[in-house]
């Protein structure tokens, strides 16, 4: 009887090894139909093995465990191809090969069936059982870059084009005399006007980015990403130059709106003696100073933080100020002027002006984005140089049409 059990176990072991090898072969070939058939055949072998082992208590215990593994294999289905292969190898082939000596001892003593030393199966997770990306992932299109400034200084300026390396314009710098009444036969008074030629040189604002040819070709949206972000970098510098450029330095800067000697400031306000003056009072005082120079302000430029501070201002009765209004889309209105918000203006400072007359920006070369593969050692290193640049000039024929200062200075002047 023992010899018969031994022979059955040996034969079934060989058949199981053969079936497992065939499962692995068909899984690699993608033959799921055959894998399903083999699963049924393996189940049949398990049942036979169960029947043979029922006559031996120790063998019955071990083979009950093996049957459980086969049932798990059956439930997982052909879709879990990798799990099928690993389960069969882990719990049949490897363990049988490992316990070859136990089978040998069983044949020699003809009493006890071999005891297969199964290891407890662990919980499969992505972290412990996979390497690399094994599932498809959904990606948002494009590249989410830095959030950039929405409102640019150029938006408050007139635009024009130019030729040559500089824009020249003539402004009046003074004069004597003037018109007067003249009696019959009387002498008409003489008048002269002093004029001066001014020049606004075109200044270049530029930078470059070097990237690999592979990155440009293989990463979707990299071209549009670099074009947008690189252009915004140029516009950031343009904002700084249009407002605060000194007109000097190396490299030479633009001469910005606020750097002009004729620009009005807190020393030019005529309003005084205010009690508990607020930021709105400072803006109105600036409008008053411009009006004294025959200008009608059309622009108020504030940092967004100052805009929200003004929105929250309250009178002594704790009601919000009635001197400020809002457009239908929520923009702040002071003295009938829609406030221009931009982070290009530092918090705590402000600009008021009749910008339709005060200044104009001219483009010698509009913003351009160009890609070069012939630069430095680009050719031998498969690199691409991206150049983003523009060339602009700023003419300010009416410097005193601009008022620029800090809220603190103007509030102090009117108090």
Give a brief description.
The chain is of the alpha+beta class and 415 residues long. 40% of the residues lie in helices and 21% in strands. Strand 7 (332-334) and strand 8 (337-338) form a beta hairpin.
Describe this entry's structure for a reader.
The chain is of the alpha+beta class and 415 residues long. The protein has two domains: 2-129; 153-176 and 192-414, Major capsid protein gp5 fold, CATH 3.30.2400. Helices cover 40% and strands 21% of the residues. It is built from 13 helices and 13 strands. The chain has a four-stranded mixed β-sheet with strand order 1-11-12-4. A four-stranded mixed β-sheet has the order 9-5-10-13. A three-stranded antiparallel β-sheet has the order 6-7-8, covered by helices on one side. Helix 1 (2-29) runs antiparallel to helix 4 and helix 9 crosses helix 13 (407-414). The longest helix is centred in the N-terminal third of the chain and has 28 residues, at 2-29. Residues 76-93 and 95-99 have low confidence and may be disordered.
């Amino acid at each position: 009887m023992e010899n018969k059990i031994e022979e059955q176990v040996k034969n079934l072991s060989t058949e199981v090894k053969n079936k497992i090898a065939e499962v692995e072969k068909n899984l690699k070939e993608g033959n799921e139909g055959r894998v399903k058939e083999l699963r049924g055949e393996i189940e049949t072998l398990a049942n036979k093995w169960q029947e043979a082992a029922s006559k031996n208590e120790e063998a019955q215990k071990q083979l009950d465990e093996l049957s459980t593994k086969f049932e798990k294999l059956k439930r997982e289905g052909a879709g879990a191809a990798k799990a099928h292969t690993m389960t069969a190898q882990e719990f049949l082939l490897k363990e049988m090969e490992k316990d070859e000596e136990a089978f040998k001892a069983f044949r020699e003593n003809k009493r006890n069936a071999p005891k297969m030393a199964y290891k407890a199966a662990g919980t499969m997770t992505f972290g412990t059982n996979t390497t690399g990306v094994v599932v498809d992932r959904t990606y948002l299109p494009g590249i989410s870059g830095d959030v950039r400034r929405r409102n640019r200084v150029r938006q408050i300026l007139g635009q024009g084009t130019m030729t040559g390396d500089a824009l020249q314009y003539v402004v009046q710098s003074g004069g004597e005399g003037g018109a007067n009444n003249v009696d019959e036969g009387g002498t008409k008074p003489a008048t002269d006007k002093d004029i001066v030629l001014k020049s606004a040189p075109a200044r270049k604002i530029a930078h470059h980015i070097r990237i690999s040819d592979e990155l440009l070709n293989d990463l979707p949206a990299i071209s549009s990403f670099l074009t947008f972000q690189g252009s915004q970098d140029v516009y950031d510098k343009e904002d700084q130059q249009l407002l605060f450029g000194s007109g000097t330095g190396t490299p030479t800067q633009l001469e910005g709106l606020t750097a002009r000697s004729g620009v009005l400031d807190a020393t030019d306000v005529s309003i005084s003696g205010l009690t508990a003056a607020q930021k709105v009072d400072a803006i109105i005082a600036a409008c008053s100073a411009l009006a004294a120079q025959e200008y009608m302000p059309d622009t108020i430029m504030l940092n967004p933080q100052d805009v929200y501070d003004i929105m929250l201002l309250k009178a002594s009765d704790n009601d919000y100020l009635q001197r400020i209004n809002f457009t239908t889309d929520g923009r702040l209105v002071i003295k009938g002027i829609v406030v221009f918000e931009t982070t290009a203006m530092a918090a705590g400072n402000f600009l008021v002006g009749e910008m339709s007359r005060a200044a104009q920006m001219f483009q010698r070369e509009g913003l351009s984005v160009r890609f070069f593969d012939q630069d430095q050692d680009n050719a031998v290193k498969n690199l691409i140089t991206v150049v983003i640049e523009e060339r602009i000039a700023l003419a300010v024929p009416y410097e005193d049409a601009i008022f620029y200062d800090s809220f603190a200075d103007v509030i102090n002047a009117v108090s």
